[in-house]
Amino acid sequence: MKLIDGKLLAANLRQEIAEKTAALKAEKGIVPTLAVILVGEDPASVSYVTAKERACIEAGMNSKEIRLPADVPEDELVSLVSSLNADEAVDGILVQLPLPKGIDAKRVVDAISPEKDVDGFTPENAGRMLIGEECFLPCTPHGVIKLIEFAGMNLSGKHVVVIGRSNIVGKPLAVLLSRKETNATVTLCHTGTKDIAAFTRIADVVVVATGRPGTLTGDMLKEGAVVIDVGVNRVADPTAAKGYRLKGDADFDSCARVASAITPVPGGVGPLTITMLLWNTLESASRKAT
After folding, report:
1. Equal fold, 29-114 vs 139-270
2. Could you tell me the CA-to-CA distances from 216 to 14, 267, 269 in Å, in that order?
3. Where are the domains of the chain?
4. Confidence at 268, pLDDT banded by 50, 70, 90
5. Cα 164 to Cα 170: distance, rounded to the nearest angstrom
6. At what angle do helices 270-286 and 43-58 cross, to 10 degrees?
7. b or e along 237-246 (b: 16 or more beta carbons within 10 Å of the residue's beta carbon)?
């Protein structure tokens, strides 16, 4: 059984991003800038935003972090996004989700200019992705594709089952996997699927992205299948220094006994999400030079 090392791939890609960022600055005087809006004090969101800021700095990019109270009016938030759209120094805009109750996340995200939507969440970018036009790809699905390439897997003609139909991971990943360049046959399972195991047991690759630990177990796999675990769940553990440990959506031990390759949690898909965010921010800034 092979562990698919997301940390190593992320390190390689971030080195490439840092080199291209330095070249863009030296040749064109352009420093990619990512604006991140954090509303409220959700611990997981604060931790994630801090990691994004650190990653930007390490890549030689500018990080513009804007923290707002949880009770900020929705109209004020939308106005802030509009001002960042108009700011020529800002190349990418990211609104950290989830937003506090009472704020319409869709309205806020939809206010982001598609040219600065480095998360790939706006309707225009989602539509462009669906029909195969150039756009910013959503970071986690893009990271999964990069991870599959890194592992040397040729998915052409292979059967891939994606468990989870979120707009952030499941649905866009199913689209990317079915593109001609990847050429997989994709089955999308979700809470309405009557017997998920009936599909996963005939799959060459299973991607699980439900946000629920233990969704995928070893008895749901065929021998030699590949497991890509997108889930990152905090599970209480009094023996851990932080009082919790991170666990994926797949039961690692049972799946590892059957799978030919599997992504660990942490250290699998997770490191690629922020990496592809940097990738998109660099791409946005590079467009200024053309």
Report:
1. yes
2. 31, 18, 16
3. 29-114, 139-270
4. very high
5. 5
6. 50
7. eeeeeeeeeb
pLDDT tens across 11-54, in order?
999 999 999 999 999 999 999 999 999 999 988 899 889 999 99
Fold of 29-114: Rossmann fold (3.40.50)
pLDDT band at 209 (very low <50, low <70, confident <90, very high): very high
Contact between residue 154 and residue 126 where contact means Cβ atoms under 8 Å apart: no
* Active-site annotation, residues: 52, 96, 119
Q: Does 289 have pLDDT greater than 90?
A: no
CATH 3.40.50.720 fits 139-270, yes or no: yes
The full 3-state SS of the chain, as one line of letters, equals CEECCHHHHHHHHHHHHHHHHHHHHHHHCCCCEEEEEEECCCHHHHHHHHHHHHHHHHCCCEEEEEEECCCCCHHHHHHHHHHHHHCCCCCEEEECCCCCCCCCHHHHHHCCCHHHCCCCCCHHHHHHHHHCCCCCCCHHHHHHHHHHHHCCCCCCCCEEEEECCCCCCHHHHHHHHHCCCCCCEEEEECCCCCCHHHHHCCCCEEEECCCCCCCECHHHCCCCCEEEECCCEEEECCCCCCCEEEECCECHHHHHCCCCEECCCCCCCHHHHHHHHHHHHHHHHHHHHC
* Cβ atoms 57, 63 nearer than 8 A: yes
The values of phi and psi at residue 14, to 5°, are -70, -35
- pTM attached to this predicted model: 0.94
Ramachandran quadrant class, 251 (left: phi over 0; alpha: psi -120 to 50; beta: rest): beta
Pairing of strands 92-95, 33-39: parallel
